[in-house]
Design brief:
Chain A is mostly helical and 238 residues long. Chain A has a single domain, classed as MetI-like (MetI-like fold, Orthogonal Bundle), CATH 1.10.3720. Chain A is 80% helix and 0% strand. Chain A has 9 helices and no strands. In chain A, α2 runs antiparallel to α8 and α4 packs across α5. Chain B has a domain of 181 residues: P-loop containing nucleotide triphosphate hydrolases (Rossmann fold). Chain B has 12 helices and 10 strands. The chains are: A mainly alpha (238), B alpha/beta (287).
């Protein structure tokens, strides 16, 4: 069965679809998933900092979201990829370390995670603010510590409010991975351009990539709908 | 006219409980030989929200086995005062409190009083029912687990079922005890919140307009419950409804513009108030 499938796939589009482009798709998915984890962590951190009573935390988080959301993704990508490499080695030099090479994958994941962390921070901030104050007070009145209140009340209750915004961010993030071809990563867009060039059929391959992205986003959509259902348990719709 | 009828109802119900046998182990640990006439005493309490002086020099005591009603016009500081009693105002940054509040003789605002312990002993029920986003069972079980009052599943079951029974919810939810607490109706949710509050065996229960979001039938159920709970707890209830204060409380405190104007037996405050402001409020001249 497996052999039949690979035979069939390698017969399509001059043999470029499998494994050439589908491998690129795998890289795209890996990039997106790893970046998402970084973005989620930074987002939660950023949202908590923005809502904290500590002025310095608010200032740092505010600067982060303003700067990142105000500069085009591709500019940030260049700055972080080339600038990051430079910075790491300047510091490494001072510490007497050898030349450190940052892989394109690491740079790509870090950059995309860093950019979307800023958007996630705003999404989570909105979601946390949407949790009724009374529920949080009830937690404190019941003897919970601030951490317990966050883990048991604020977080589970805010997930429901965060899902629509989170879904939006995830879809944009998945598509932003296409930018990594500029720093030399062979994702599916990069490979499709190459394949299109060699067969002189650029549009065929662009359509293929468009459809593959649609597959990724359609599957995500299903997952998001499932999450929304799960986290809205016990909430009546007006 | 209306007020008079309600006071009659209140008079029928007025019973002074001095039975101390029901005090649980923790209470007797605190004070083994002395019957605690005053569970809580507040002395010269002032509360400020930034520059706003919300409570002005209020002193009152909360007795064992009594329902103390706090009434007064909107914005008079009823809820603010109530929220000082379990230090829930601490989570508001701009809020500053001076004065002294003692629980069984111990200062709750002193640095060596554990605020988690305080909130286990002084429970709270809010205006809007706010069950945790968890199952009905977990809503009640969470507190006893948090405060290590139970050590086994069987003990937890016992507390959960007996608390749900006491608030009259068990028969209504017995087939869906693992469903989310937020699926219940408003009145049921509020009774769940009361069950959750009594599950940790507090000394005092604070109620901040517990019936204002409920219909008359649910309100009646909660009022009956309050009357029953009095045999074991001290209850402080903030209410907008003077009829409710007359129905459920033994003593009534009337607040106006952050000051405690009058405090006395409910029957006396409603029939023969000492202060002109109280009389004006009760007879509906303002408020």
């Amino acid at each position: 069965m497996h052999e039949f499938l690979t035979d069939l796939l390698s017969g399509v589009l001059g043999g470029y679809l499998y494994p050439f482009i589908l491998e690129g798709m795998l890289l795209t998915i890996q990039l997106a998933v790893f970046s998402l984890f970084i973005a989620l962590a930074l987002g939660l951190l950023g949202a908590t900092a923005k809502l904290s009573s500590n002025r310095i935390a608010r200032l740092v988080a505010g600067t982060y979201t303003t700067l990142i959301r105000g500069v085009p993704d591709i500019v940030l990508m260049f700055i972080i990829f080339f600038g990051g490499q430079l910075l790491v080695n300047v510091i490494g030099d001072k510490l007497g370390l050898d030349y450190i090479e940052i892989s394109e994958f690491t740079a790509g994941v870090t950059t995309i995670g860093f950019i979307f962390g800023a958007y996630m921070a705003e999404t989570f901030r909105g979601a946390i603010l949407a949790v009724p104050r009374g529920e949080i007070e009830a937690g404190y009145a019941y003897g919970m510590t601030s951490f317990q209140v966050f883990r048991r009340i604020t977080f589970p209750a805010c997930v429901r409010h965060a899902i629509p915004g989170f879904g939006n961010n995830w879809l944009v993030l998945a598509k932003t991975t296409a930018l990594v071809s500029v720093i030399g990563l062979e994702d599916m867009v990069f490979r499709a351009t190459q394949a299109g060039g060699s067969l002189r059929q650029p549009f065929t391959f662009l359509f293929v990539v468009a459809i593959l992205y649609l597959v990724i986003t359609a599957v995500s959509d299903g997952g998001l709908r499932w999450m929304e259902k799960r986290y809205s348990a016990g909430v009546r719709r007006a | 006219m209306q007020t008079e009828t309600n006071v009659t109802v209140e008079k029928e119900r007025i019973v002074i409980h001095t039975d101390t046998s029901k005090f649980d182990a923790r209470k007797s640990e605190v004070n083994q030989n002395v019957f605690i006439e005053n569970r809580m005493t507040a002395d010269n309490i002032d509360v400020y929200y930034s520059d706003n002086h919300a409570i002005k020099n209020v002193s009152l005591e909360i007795r064992a086995n009594e329902v103390l009603a706090i009434i007064g016009p909107s914005g008079c500081g009823k809820s603010t005062f109530l929220r000082c009693l379990n230090r829930i105002n601490d989570i508001i940054d701009s809020c500053r409190i001076t004065g002294s509040i003692k629980l069984d003789g111990k200062e709750i605002y002193s640095s060596d009083f554990d605020v988690v312990e305080l909130r286990a002993r002084v429970g709270m029920v809010f205006q809007k029912p706010n069950p945790f986003p968890k199952s009905i069972y977990d809503n009640v079980a969470y507190g006893p687990r948090l405060h290590s009052l139970v050590s086994s599943r069987a003990e937890t079951d016992e507390i959960v079922y007996s608390c749900l029974e006491r608030v009259g919810l068990l028969s209504e939810v017995s087939d869906r005890i693992q469903n989310s607490g937020t699926e219940l109706s408003g009145g049921q949710q509020q009774r769940l919140c009361i069950a959750r509050a009594i599950a940790v065996q507090p000394d005092v229960i604070l109620m901040d307009e517990p019936c204002s979001a409920l219909d008359p039938i649910a309100t009646a159920k909660i009022e009956d419950l309050i009357d029953e709970l009095r045999s074991q707890y001290s209850i402080v209830i903030v209410t907008h409804s003077m009829q409710q204060a007359a129905r459920v409380s033994q003593r009534t405190a009337y607040f106006n513009l952050g000051e405690l104007i009058e405090l006395g037996d409910t029957s006396q405050v409603f029939t023969n108030p000492n202060h002109q402001l109280t009389e004006d409020y009760i007879t509906g001249k303002f408020g």
